[in-house]
Amino acid sequence: MRYRDSGVDIDKANEATRAIARLAKATWGSEVLSEIGHFGGLFAVPKSYRDPVLVSSMDGVGTKLLVARAARTFDTVGQDLVNHCVNDILVQGAKPLFFLDYIAAGKLEPAMVASVVAGLAQACKENGCALIGGETAEMPGLYQHGDFDLAGTIVGVVERDQVIDGSAIVAGDLVFALPSNGLHTNGYSLARRVFEQAGLAMDARVDDFGSTVAEELLRVHRSYLASVNEIAGKARIKGLAHITGGGILENLPRILPKTTGARIHKGSWPVLPVFDYIARQGDVVEGEMYRVFNMGAGMLVVVSAQDAAKMPERAAGLTVYRVGEIVEGDGSVTLV
Amino acid sequence: MRYRDSGVDIDKANEATRAIARLAKATWGSEVLSEIGHFGGLFAVPKSYRDPVLVSSMDGVGTKLLVARAARTFDTVGQDLVNHCVNDILVQGAKPLFFLDYIAAGKLEPAMVASVVAGLAQACKENGCALIGGETAEMPGLYQHGDFDLAGTIVGVVERDQVIDGSAIVAGDLVFALPSNGLHTNGYSLARRVFEQAGLAMDARVDDFGSTVAEELLRVHRSYLASVNEIAGKARIKGLAHITGGGILENLPRILPKTTGARIHKGSWPVLPVFDYIARQGDVVEGEMYRVFNMGAGMLVVVSAQDAAKMPERAAGLTVYRVGEIVEGDGSVTLV
After folding, report:
1. Which of A1, A60, A94 has the CB atom closest to B283's CB atom?
2. Is pLDDT at B200 greater than 60 in this prediction?
3. Is B109 in the same domain as B70?
4. Has residue B167 been placed in a domain?
5. What does the pLDDT read at residue A37?
6. In this structure, are A225 and A302 located in the same domain?
7. Is residue B168 part of a domain?
8. How many domains are contained in chain A?
9. Disulfide check for A264: which of A25, A183, A324, B103 has CB 3.0–4.6 Å away?
10. Confidence of residue B27 (pLDDT cuts 50, 70, 90)
11. Could you tell me which residues come within 8 angstroms of residue A108 by beta carbon, excluding any fewer than 6 positions away?
């Protein structure tokens, strides 16, 4: 018996590794000290920080992968994953340093892996982040043929006295939103079920949102790095909330002091047509929609009332919406 | 339609998150600045380093998960994952700082998740590493019921001028081995197939190795941190190779300068009975065995001939075996 007979092809894995190495190297700056092929990725802590704090996050892209598989489009989920992770550390004020990925499948298809990694590398470049390592795992018996999973870890850095954590938020502060461009990476189990029940295939065109189901569902999760950097140059950011699973209702409370609350005004930013469609077609009540989806608001920014006047109308190409205010409260969010 | 109808239970996910938070906090030292529940984990770069280099690695535990599932034992794979990652950065001289985990399943069972995380937390504590964050993802449709995957990322640190990379290795140096205690985390697809073909259930006792199939296959991947630290206090380590997938034949070359080679003497360390059993029962040729399994040698250590006399006979409880020497060569390993 050879290893290949048991369903694992080491040569094919090595071929995928070489393709990854080429794509990854294009994202490396001078801080990256190692070549892929060593056991671990080496990254020098930038000298410019007085008291550097590392901020890290690990995530997947959830069942958006099933949409990608059905549409045979694999580069966008790579971008989704990086941008999602960039946003997750951005909310604490961190700038990305490096990224590692994990791709697991029952059977590794080198072309699929290369496409995923091409997306990872593109988004890493766009966010000034080095794709420093990762793992591709072929696991017959654990993943059904065609199934795969994708996860990633980002590590970034922030000066200790510049960590953003929401602790300075007080009643009277204002809440702004940066727009999402679709579902981003959350709510796909529900969305897929709604489209399935409507009998719509991936390539079906839906007039409500003017594109195919696949195009709408695979829009790349936005990175808010450039927009937040632009805002931070103009106003003091007291808190940032990345609107992921749990929606505004569960993500904004994560940064609110327990004696405050937030009042968010429905209608103060554009809810994307895809959410209207899902609510209507799936008969999903409004409270549930706001608990599952970002509803068009991908990132919330809290600033003082004084700084509100300094907020730009647009930041790195995105419209900035004023969507609510901080009030006395118990740490929760009210939709009004 | 509510989100729960689509197979995702946010309350259950939150319950799992709370269990994880309790276990994880027990691993935190003063460098950890955040509470889980924020978006990213915060870890202060230790002040004691002049020129710190971060060394990171991401990995899974492969199809050892299928053995864990069959045996309904989930804490050991958590330990496997951490120890594997600790070894992967140890080979470049790095000391672990923090760890993040990713657990994905079709349906999250809080008891299973808590058991995996208990294993992660235990191994993190043993290796002085903070379990700083992670993601649990419930993905109906992507994972079959009962299936799950587990991956993790470790970040460690090493002083820049103390990175170990094998570049100082020359002909005449000697190779030592630290023993493994079983398959560690590699070769499970082949091993499972051999045991299946032999008609052996997980709880079947095998006299050849004196335990049940499950006990043998689920032995926890050894961390070599303590042993390598003890050796490093006595001799200058020129290179370390963690023997994972690809065995000695593919892992030792990763640190050899291209003008050197290694001659490894079979019989100079004990090959564990489980490997003899797999070779015989599965009719696996010797070359393939050495390409897939660690064969009893979990970590190789290269030191100069002068330093060989300083090598301890035992390091942190493990016997140190002299197993070969570095010769002139083309970067490859010869088994003699």
Report:
1. A1
2. yes
3. yes
4. no
5. 46
6. yes
7. no
8. 2
9. A324
10. confident
11. A9, A12, A13, A16, A136, A138
| Interface predicted TM-score (ipTM) | 0.92
Residues from chain B contacting residue A53 (CB–CB below 8 Å): 33, 42-45
- Chain A nearest-CA distance from B193, in A, is 7
A21 touches chain B (CB under 8 A): no
Q: Which of residues 307-336 of B touch A (CB under 8 A)?
A: none
Distance from CA of A309 to the nearest CA of B (A): 28
Contact flag B282-A1 (C-beta cutoff 8 Å): yes
| A263, pLDDT greater than 70 | yes
| Vertex A98 angle, CA A93 and A101, to 5° | 120
Query: Would you say residue B214 lies in a domain?
Result: yes
pLDDT digit string (tens) for A173-216?
999 999 999 999 999 989 999 999 999 999 999 999 999 999 99
Element (H, E) at B321: strand B321-328
Distance from the Cα of B5 to chain A's closest Cα (Å) equals: 8
Of A38, A102, A144, the CB nearest to B151: A102
CB of B163 less than 8 A from some CB of A: yes
Residue B1 is predicted with a pLDDT of 53
Are A22 and A156 in the same domain?
yes
B93, B163 Cβ separation under 8 angstroms: yes
pTM for this structure?
A: 0.93
Does B284 lie in the same domain as B218?
Answer: yes
Considering the domain architecture, whether residues A80 and A154 belong to the same structural domain is answered as: yes
Sequence-ordered strand ranges (E) for chain A: 41-44, 52-60, 95-105, 130-138, 148-159, 174-179, 205-206, 211-212, 239-242, 260-264, 297-303, 314-315, 318-319, 321-328, 333-335
Residues of A numbered 75-114 whose beta carbons fall under 8 angstroms of chain B's beta carbons: which are they? 88-89, 91-92, 94, 97-98, 100-102, 104
CATH number of A158's domain: 3.30.1330.10
Residue A13 clears pLDDT 50, i.e. is over it: yes
B214 vs A108, higher pLDDT: B214
Same domain, A125 and A250: no
Domain shared by B178 and B297, yes or no = yes
Q: Which domain holds residue B32?
A: 3-162
Residues in B closer than 8 angstroms to A52, CB to CB, are 44-45
Which of B162, B197, B213 is the last residue before a domain boundary? B162
Distance CA B64, CA B319 (A): 26
Q: What percent of chain B has pLDDT over 90?
A: 78
